[in-house]
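SEQUENCE, STRUCTURE TOKENS:
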Amino acid sequence: MGLQRRRRQERRVVPAVPVQAALSAAVLLLLVVLSFHSFLSSAPLADRTSPDPVPIRHLLPRRKPSSILLKDKMEMLGTDAGDVDVFLIPSGGESPVGNLWGSKLSKDFYGCSHASSGFATAEANTVPNRYLMIATSGGLNQQRTGITDAVVAARILNATLVVPVLDQKSFWKDASDFSNIFNVEWFIASLDKDVKIIKELPEIGGKVTRPQIMRVPRKCNARCYENRVLPVLIKKHVVRLTKFDYRLSNKLETDLQKLRCRVNYHGLKFTDQIQMMGDSLIQRMKAKSNHFIALHLRFETDMLAFSGCYYGGGEKERTELGAIRKRWKTLHTSNPEKERRHGKCPLTPEEIGLMLRALGFGKDVHIYVASGEIYGGEERLAPLKALFPNFHSKETLATKDELAPFSSYSSRMAALDFIVCDGSDVFVTNNNGNMARILAGRRRYFGHKRTIRPNAKKLYSLFLNRTGMTWETFSSNVHTFQKGFMGEPDELRPGRGEFHEYPSACICERSKRITYSNSDIQNEAGSYSGKGTVNRSTSEDLDWIDFDYGENAPLGRVSPIEIESEYDAMIKQEDLELEEILSD
């Protein structure tokens, strides 16, 4: 009996030992296999580019804001662990494909804005006792377009131009006048062969003449000015055009387009004080690295509210931006996915950083960031700073004392950013606002310096679907989508977009001068007679074209005399405020 009991106990106990051992061995083997698989997956990317890859977590379509975890010398970007997958971003330098810091074709093109032999002098063109006054609108760069077009409008009207008055009452609340920002003496002297410009309105017949106040519609062409403004100017002698921004058509004869370029690229110089401080900031960036990127980052609260996009901030973001958006009753109901799908949402700081790293810029690159107050503050900027730790701004490069003469004036501070962005090796923008457009055109004119604007429509789908994607695949797609958006000379599209962004009539080829007839300018196919092949304009190129504008005046038939008070009655106050906020 005792023997049978012992045998039954042995049958119960002995088999348990190999089961536990087998389970332990299986777990151990699984861990080894997973570790080996992980090693095989990551080793080739790290070995190929850098021994110190950076794991980046994929944001899911909910687009929660990124957070940073520094662990074992590796930057972790992403959301909660349950929401993300991880792919490795190489820390190394440039992409082996192409030259990131410039274009090989740039040496073949140059800016050309000389007047033709048939362009009459200012003395011959100007009619006595005919004066045009201009009141600009918006921030620095919107006002710059207004000043440029004011000179051309005066030329069309055979009038003497009074130095334009800058906007001091709008959202920007900057008390600066023209001479506080621009070199007024140079402005007058450099353009004296094209248009007569004076500082103040003189007395006419021994009397002070009160100007007739008018406003012209947007995109008003030469005939529009001749029909609407000229009759009043002949009768009253003095006309003051208000809220003068984008009031001149893109489609003008070549000599007038070239005059635009002479004003914008040669006639408008900042004051010595502003220019010297801006040059000093450039020198300090150059001292840190042979090359640097300047990033114009528009991510302010009001702009994001207007966009109607969602940036991953949860219910708090929806409530805050939704409340601001209600101030503009004319805006349509927000549809975030639609706006992003159409490329109308500015890229987030993280997305811009990922795009630049995918293009091949290494984490050792120095970046100068020109921006207002970023929505979400440092938390929102953290992923960009992790991707590019060498992060600078005018506030980090200069002392408070150095910035004191400018810090109380938004336009003067914007002028400093403008100078540094213009002087950078690569200029990048997350938007297509006024500063981005003007700098893009200026950099094309002065040698086609590398200018990168995101193909927001295509990148949207890439950012949305990058979960489970390798870094190699992500980077390859970014390269593909950004073709035509890298500031190459063959991206010029005569007649498409804003002339200030694509000054095609003012770009010449060294081997053969490129000229454009009126039919060329109006040709929507966007071809030109120089070397190479133009990338044809597509819908995504124009998606942002009116993003800055809260007001779009119709070009229909109206009375030639459009008094300011009557015009203002047709425009809602929230539209004016919207336009001011989004102007630069």
DSSP finds 24 helices and 16 strands in the chain. The longest strand covers residues 238-244. The first helix runs from residue 2 to 13. Residues 549 and 579 are 5 Å apart (CA to CA).
